[in-house]
Amino acid sequence: MIKKKICNLSQLENKNYFKTWVKEFKDEIIIFKNDKKIYVKSSICPHFGGPITYNQNEKHLYCHWHGLRFSVDGKCINQKSFKACLSNYNFELKDNYIYIKK
């Protein structure tokens, strides 16, 4: 199992989400809070690799290339025929830092 320190909670508070490339996982991840719960997902759209951001006001993730929207659980919510989901990462919160595990 690989465990990687990603960010301090204060970095998450400043923007409502935090994105970074994780070389060990060969993935860009997004960390965000929704209703005080932390989520860690891949920030690469499974459709065609577009960038994903989190819309705090509408409480969903959004692909900027083709307009796909994903629930905080990673399921596509505006194209019911699209079955692929955003990859989910397990994480641990320790001493105000978020670590992801794979």
The main pleated sheet reads as: 3 strands, antiparallel
What general form does the structure show?
Answer: globular
Examine the secondary-structure arrangement and name the CATH architecture. Answer: 3-layer Sandwich
Major β-sheet strand ordering:
1-9-8
Beta-strand content estimate: over 45%
Low-confidence stretches: none
What's the CATH superfamily, by name? Rieske [2Fe-2S] iron-sulphur domain
H-E string? EHEEEEEEEE
Count all strands and give the number: 9
The overall pLDDT average reads 91
Please explain how this structure is put together:
The chain has one helix and nine strands; from the N terminus they run E-H-E-E-E-E-E-E-E-E. It has 102 residues and is mainly beta. It has a single domain (3-101), classed as 3-layer Sandwich (Rieske Iron-sulfur Protein). The strands form three sheets. A three-stranded antiparallel sheet has the order 1-9-8. Strands 2-3-4 form a three-stranded antiparallel sheet. A three-stranded antiparallel sheet has the order 5-6-7, with no helix packed on it. Strand 8 and strand 9 form a beta hairpin.
Briefly, what is this?
This protein is mostly beta strands and 102 residues long.
Q: Which key features would you list for this structure?
A:
Rieske Iron-sulfur Protein; 102 residues; single chain; mainly beta; 9 strands; 1 helix
How would the blueprint of this fold be written?
Layout: E1 3-8, H1 9-15, E2 17-22, E3 27-34, E4 37-42, E5 52-55, E6 60-63, E7 69-70, E8 90-94, E9 97-101
Antiparallel strand pairs: 1-9, 2-3, 3-4, 5-6, 6-7, 8-9
